[in-house]
Amino acid sequence: MTKKGGESCRDDSYGCHGAASISVLGKMRRERSREEGRLYGFLNFLKKLVGKDRRLIGKGDRSLGQDQQNWNNGMFLDGYLMEALNTDADADADADVDAKSKIKQCRNCTTKYRGFLDMGRLKIANFEIFCLKAYAHDYDYSYTAECLKNPLKPQYNGGIVVNSELNDGLNGWSLAGDAKIKNNVSSDGNKFIVASERKGPNHGFSQTFQLDKDKFYVISGWVQVNHGDDTSIAVIFKTQDGFQHAAWVIAKSGCWSMFKGGLANASGPAQLYFETNNTAIDIWADSISVQPFSQEEWERHQNQSIEKVRKSKVAIQVVDSQGKPLPNATIALEQGRADFPFGVAINANILDNTAYQNWFFSRFKVTVFEDEMKWYSTEVTQGNVNYSKADAMVKLCKSKGVAVRGHNILWDNPKLQPNWVPALSPQQLSIASDKRVESVVAKYKGEIFHWDVINENLHFNFFESKLGPNASTHFFRLASQFDNTTMFLNEFFTIEKTYETSSPANYLKKIKQLRTEGYGGPLGIGLQGHFSLPIPPYIRSALDMLASAKLPIWITELDVTNSTNQVKFLDQIIKEVVSHPAVEGVLIWSGWKRYGCYRMCLTDNNFKNLPTGNVVDKARVTLSHEGLVGITNAEGYFETSLFHGDYKAIVAHPSVPKSFQYNFTVTPNGGSDHVKSLSYKFTTV
């Protein structure tokens, strides 16, 4: 919803931590001054009974004197959220409650109790206690790249930000550096903060937070500038360890642009800043949110997303030839085609290495070649094109039923061209590069899926510097003439770290440029994923931003640099990207080489898994349900949750002489929260 001046942006739904929560509904008779203290004491009493790791929601009379606004909007006391709500319940003076006993019972109960509690002169009527299933804050995957007249409401009601909508003047905000800050009001009543007359890039307004090193922080909000377009603004936290970039946004004048980012591995006091190098620019901000999540909450989001987006509930019934249910039938499931591809890169070493082949082809159904399709591999000298290695690898993969992703047609890095290319004149380069595009794309049409058209052209601009600013669009349009597969951009440091050049904001800007300049064909977002120190909330927020383009997103070259935490980080990253609703496939960048892989090996030279290989195997087994066997119940049913894709069910029962097979497909349920099981009935022959 759009934010408007002076309106409260609180909603009526709040998350509760822990294994149980208590909701107290009732009508509180008004008492003044001294009696308010009794009520607060009672609420704290309830808090202690519930336990410090649980959150209490209390709903009662809104009119508590001087603190009425806190009650209207929801109040935090020592980290426990209490909200007031009027009810029409009547007092029942005859109903007395042992509240302490009932609340203690409620930690594990499923019953309700309704009565009356007398606390001296302060009476709480129709006191109702019941148990609810606990829930933490749900994650908000939303982001819009549209520049809006008014900002939307802050995500998570602002989280831990004080005065996130600037409806209370400059409360919570302070001056940072040499600048002027003020609270402004637009013509339609929207309030926001302005930093002007800035003497330094990060001079302006700031707010300080106490951060917990075990928490993940999602940062979002809206910015505008007073003049000009495409002003790059960094959202930065000054922590005890220095400045940490949390997000980048491209701001405009005349409308509001949203930013989204993340912060982790920070503790103690941290100051939020907004930075742009052009000090003549006034920075405006509004609807700012900083939301902490525990790591348990974060993992819960991942599991919820996987169950909702990647999997469906399945019920399989086995019956005999007369239609009678067969209990204790064994159902072994084998996945064929997977809706979510998960694979590993290979290289030419696989062609004459049986052990390498056995390891790889027993595990994966999708791959990409590290170097064998690149221009510097196929045309070492001008005019002598040689696809022999790539051909042999494509043939081998095809014989094993493994799909091959195309990487890459051209590379914008000037240092990674065929040796003879940099010396070409612009006209010669234009002819040579066009020939390259036609040659490789036409040759492998129908044999590969996807093409990385011009690799890393947010970081580099070799072809643009020689052929003009529209070179990328030209190559996308040309490639699409020879194959209608999806043509991809492919970048590093978009999700790996908060790097301005290839930030999600700049990636979206590049997509817009391609479309504006006339490329209207299938387009995809490739994210390489070469990690050192992952920042999970930044990864997720970056994917949220890119998802707004509504294009397929693939993690194309995932690896983690060799370090003490390599295995932990790899597992963490795989879970993060697999669980994100917008990601459609993952490829691990780990082609085997005898003397060392690019950055990360999965096996030793005898093709025994290293710890990194075990992480990848665990993910693969989870996604494919390898080894899953179920037993039917008394009604002949076996129920489970399966990743979307094609399956073969091998069914056996003591009453049937031999096992029999059925093929079936598990399809998405459209993301509905009301999950219905897909039902299949297998009849013995």
Q: How many domains would you count in the coordinates? A: 4
Helix run count: 14
- CATH-derived topology of the largest domain: TIM Barrel
Radius of gyration (Å): 30 Å
CATH superfamily of the largest domain: Glycosidases
Residue-averaged pLDDT, rounded?
A: 85
Distance between the termini: 58 Å
Which class of secondary structure composition applies to the elements? alpha/beta
Largest sheet features: 9 strands, parallel
* Helix share, percent: 10-25%
* Percentage of residues in strands: 25-35%
Question: Residue ranges: pLDDT <50 for 5 or more in a row?
Answer: 5-36, 47-135, 671-675
Q: What general outline do the C-alpha atoms trace?
A: globular
CATH architecture descriptor of the largest domain: Alpha-Beta Barrel
What is the total tally of β strands? Answer: 34
State the CATH class of the largest domain: Alpha Beta
Descriptive account of the structure:
The chain contains 14 helices and 34 strands. With 685 residues, it is of the alpha/beta class. It has 4 domains: 120 residues, no CATH class; 142 residues, Sandwich (Jelly Rolls); 90 residues, Carboxypeptidase-like, regulatory domain (Immunoglobulin-like, Sandwich); 284 residues, TIM Barrel. Strand 1, helix 1 and strand 2 form a beta-alpha-beta unit. Helix 13 runs parallel beside helix 14. The chain is globular and about 85 Å long. About 18% of the residues have low confidence.
